[in-house]
Stage V sporulation protein AE (Cohnella abietis), 116 residues
Amino acid sequence: MIYLWAFIIGGAICIFGQICFDVFKLTPAHTMALLVVIGAALDGVGWYEPLVEFAGAGASVPITSFGNALVHGALEELKEDGWIGIITGIFKVTSAGISAAIIFSFIAALFVKPKG
């Protein structure tokens, strides 16, 4: 059943993104930023973690989880280190994902030649 809920929740997030493209005529950058902000807001009110527990990868794989990670890390470090933790928490939680994106992009650039 977890696979079904992951598919439904992840699909719903993707449908929302597609509606932003088609109906509201948002650019990919605007849509991505909106989804990150929605994930951050949901984590800020405490609703994203229960969604991840319910839907698994359906909620933890889409871009909304990046906003969740930013806010979650900032709030955790705020409790531990005070106000400076807001900044350090963001980097602590998301650094592995950002580093992986940079490394894999570099490796892909070694093997793929752009058309031009």
